[in-house]
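---------- Forwarded message ----------

FYI, see the Haloacetate dehalogenase H-1 record below. Original note from H. follows.
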Amino acid sequence: MLATLEKQMRRVNQIDICFRTVGQGPALLMLHGHPQNHMMWHKVVPELAKRFTLVIADLRGYGDSDKPRSPEGQSAYSKRIMAQDMYELMVQLGHSRFSVLAHDRGARVAHRLALDHADAVQKMVLLDIAPTLAMYRQTNEAFARAYWHWFMLIRPTPFPEILIEHDPALYLRSVMGVRSAGMAPFTEEALAEYERCLGLPGTAYGICEDYRASAGIDLEHDAQDIERSNPVDCPLMVLWGKNGAIEQCFDPITEWKKVATHLQGEALPCGHYIAEEAPDLLLGKVVPFLSSVSV
């Protein structure tokens, strides 16, 4: 269903963002993770579209969205900038208030979106992450082995970009295939789309700049919010895979309680790629949460 929807582009925040939209009801922004694109939601879109107006977008640097170069000494991929992209996209589409469902890198963008545009975000579901600042501060051997790419991708350009561009398909399988479920959850059609987009000019650079920002300017922004007692104030659900590194290396609920005021969450019996490994379980949690009326 997702692949049959018209692919659209909108100029926001001085770049072009690729997205598809479908459904009826309250607006729901859906943001993907690394090294994927918006097609990762294909198993849950048909059901969600019955209840929500979906805006399914590619983050800057990923998919068919623009991949701008960062100015000298600055980052064009801070989560603040990436969140601004999505805020402007939703406003342009007529959604001044909306909920967010986001995975992995998209969930880090969503976290910043809820902080910087609190009046716009009604509810939020974040999949398989702990707060970025907590994860870097608590890095240990087990986490470094599981999330090795976090530390490779932040090396200065062009070293990691060259490695990715040499064999994008190998890189994709080296990241996705070593997780608990291997490559089994991914359809051939979805994999082909992930590989296509990973091989586009500028994608390797955009991915690395995303991670470089998370190990730099994003940590500064997150620390400032903690110092200023500026938590996520919308209803927040966090879900993570019981078979993944988030469960094994962190205490997600404890960490999210430090930065969010209205929190619920739990581990699901799957790995990192929840929307593709356990779509029905995900829908069973997300739909009631997003459909309920906030008090």
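H. also flagged this: Residues 79 and 86 are 11 Å apart (CA to CA).
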